[in-house]
Amino acid sequence: MDVAALAGSLKALAADLPFPAFDTADARFEAAQAELREAARESNAEVGLHKLGAARERLDAARTRLGEAVDAIDDYLAAIGAGAGPAPAAAAPARGAPSAAPAPVDPRQWWTDRVNELCDRSGDAEPERVPPTRLFNELLKAAGEGNADAYCKRLRDAGPETGVKLPGLAWPLVRSLAAEHLGRNPNASDVPVLRDKCVAKVRALVPKAEPLHVAEALASACTLGVGTGDDAARTAAIGPVLVAAMHRLPRQGPKDEHDRTERRART
Predict the structure, then answer these.
(1) pTM
(2) Which residues lie within the region annotated Disordered (predicted)?
(3) Where are the domains of the chain?
């Protein structure tokens, strides 16, 4: 390949580097962060803001590396006397520079799609604004009756504004019910046992909730230092049905636990 052909190929390669895609991705990250900040004001659950921020930083780092690649092509072309390649300033606009606006994130549609996926159902939302406590009680009723269709519909219709508040109502009850079942405050070693006792009932209504997700919810509810991941819809979906599952577990008082410990010690 002669120098002119090589230079032409390198210039074409530099021109095709995906800087516009980086701009679009960054704008979408920014829009998603704005939505999550709004949700975080109304929720006790971890909604993944720090992970989204870290992803945006990695995107910036990748864009910088791409700009360095353009500089290297320019330097090489200059060294072989083939002229400069694309100007770096034009190829790698700084964050905040005008770019084509991406389609706005629709949090309600995302919520509808995600709840349908988690519950293995389909259907459009019929938006209804209800107080969080009323929604929580309706979901508890549906969970207690094993009515998966009603559970999915109520959660889907509520939307993210109300749905993200459910863990704040569910976790204190999960913690209290766990203590009543165990006869003492739960600890980390209890999570697998509680998970195994509840996971089937949870997955009967939320089939895409894996055992790991149920364990994370239990650990978070019992304040054992484990987060619930970065999926606000999944955390909200697990909360009420986990309370219903825990409510069905037998209770024992502290004396029962003491007697059982003594029996184990004798044997």
Answers:
(1) 0.60
(2) 87-107, 248-267
(3) 3-90, 108-258
